Structure formats: C-alpha cells, structure tokens
Lipoprotein
Amino acid sequence: MSRWLLRCLLLCCLALLAGCPKSASKGSALDEAQYSYSAAIRWGDFEGAWNLVDPEVRKEHPLTDIDFSRYKQVQISSYRDSGGTTLGNGEVVRDIEIGVINRNTLAERTVRYRERWRYDEPSRSWWLVSGLPDLWGE
C-alpha cells in the first residue's frame, strides 16, 4: 500500500512541476533588467550598462573608446526612479534623475533622463532602446 501511495505522490509532484513556469514573467524580467542597468550606472560600469542596450541600437549608434572615456570623467552620486509608464506597443518608459559629479571640478549636478525599454519576444528579454544617458546635455 505504501509503495502505491509513494508512486501517486511522485506522479503528483511531477505533474505540479510540469505546470510551473519555465522562465520569469515579463514583469519580473523587466525588473531584473532595470535593476541590472541601474546598478551598472550607479557603479560607473557604463560598458556593462551598454550590454543592456538593444543590439540594433548598438549597431546603429556604436560608442567608441573616446565615448566610454568621457563616462570615466564622471561619478554617479544618485540614481532615482521618478516613475514609469507602460506603452501599448510592448514598451515601457521610466523617468530617471541621475546625480553626476565631474571628477575634475567636483561639481555636482542633476541630469534627467528617460529610459525606454522594449520587450523582445524571441529572446524573451528586455532591451533599452534609448541608449546610455547623455550626461553632458548635448
């Protein structure tokens, strides 16, 4: 009798596991991507943040070593999410305030930036389509 009960229990567990989602939901995947991106920006890892930019955007607007060296001239003192909006076309926008310190002058200022994220169904990942923030107001 106990062997039969054990088999039934095992089959029930396998059936439950088969019904579990195999990947994160779109919402949690977006949270993970935005957290990784904001952490990279906060720590000054602009090369790492660049890896979360949409590959098509990277191909159309490549950054040079000189571009990356400009980012080394600043230190990020804050990164604040001011709220976001879900667009109907599988995109999400998020308004950000970034505290930026010029390493040469030690002057601090605040830069407003709007992130735009796009969900890519084939890769099941979110990509930043707005590119890295313009910290120089150009």
